[in-house]
Write a structure and sequence with these properties.
about 5% strand, two-stranded antiparallel sheet, flat, about 280 residues, mainly alpha, 6 strands
């Protein structure tokens, strides 16, 4: 015949059962937390892997001997090249999955190339002030993604958007049949009208750089059309107007330098570099 458990034994059973439940609950909670942490870690790793990184040619090994008078400026611009790559890599991560098939090329690789071209040109100019100016460095401006497959929708992908039919006057104002497009057009201050008398020895170089200013505006207008609807609220400023300003600063500086070789170097022309968007 079974005997009833004493009362204190019943209490022990209840307490033991309660303790077991607490231990079990703690194990479940810990397991859930670890599962969540593993999921977040995996997700972050996947995001970073999907973004890839930018691969740019090294500039420093291609430089000639740098004069002491140019070393500080050259070092500063070499550091800037590294900063530009770091910013592009961050943007690759921040914009994974955004935009159309040409987003990476138009919004990241293209602007990065423009910035690098301007920075590399400043390096060459600074060396050229007291030594032979290095040539051919512009071939180092273009960058690629670090995996061949990641560039799908980036470099090499042909755009189906129409070209921007824009014409540019000598100083930089862009206008024409494409002005009424949804993309808008870019207007830049006129440079030619702000120049002093150009020495005959500098005329060819000045004219060549004035034409380059027009080309830069035409390219920016085309990019406006090709990227309609892409990016966030600051896309046009960061991907088009900002890089255009950088290129114009470099080109305008070359104009001033060429005049300054045989006449007074014009000053204040850098205020003409920034452009605006007309809707």
């Amino acid at each position: 015949m079974s005997r009833a458990l004493p009362k204190y034994n019943k209490r022990r059973v209840v307490m033991i059962g309660g303790a077991s439940a607490v231990v079990l609950s703690a194990a479940v909670i810990a397991g859930s937390a670890l599962a969540g942490e593993s999921h977040d870690t995996a997700q972050n790793a996947t995001t970073k892997a999907a973004a890839n990184t930018v691969n740019c040619p090294a500039v420093a090994p291609s430089l000639p001997s740098v004069p002491a008078s140019a070393k500080a400026e050259v070092d500063r611009n070499l550091a800037l090249l590294n900063t530009q790559i770091a910013e592009a890599n961050k943007r690759l991560v921040d914009t994974v999955g955004q935009g159309g098939p040409n987003f990476v090329q138009n919004a990241i690789l293209g602007p990065l190339k423009d910035k690098r071209a301007s920075t590399i040109d400043r390096i060459a100019i600074s060396i050229g002030r007291t030594a032979a100016k290095p040539t051919g460095l512009d071939t180092l401006a273009a960058c690629t993604l670090n995996t061949a497959g990641a560039a799908a929708g980036g470099a090499g992908a042909a755009s189906t958007a129409p070209s921007a039919p824009a014409t540019a006057q000598a100083g930089g104002d862009a206008s024409g049949a494409g002005a009424a497009t949804a993309a808008g057009t870019i207007t830049c201050p006129d440079v030619a009208s702000q120049l002093p008398a150009v020495p005959a020895s500098a005329k060819a170089e000045v004219d060549r750089n004035l034409a380059l200013l027009n080309t830069q505006i035409a390219e920016a207008n085309k990019r406006l059309v090709d990227t309609v609807g892409q990016g966030g609220p600051n896309f046009v400023q960061n991907a088009i107007l900002g890089p255009l300003k950088d290129k114009r600063v470099s080109t305008i500086d070359r104009i001033a330098i060429s005049i300054g070789r045989t006449a007074a170097k014009p000053t204040g022309l850098d205020t003409l570099a920034a452009c605006t968007l007309n809707k």
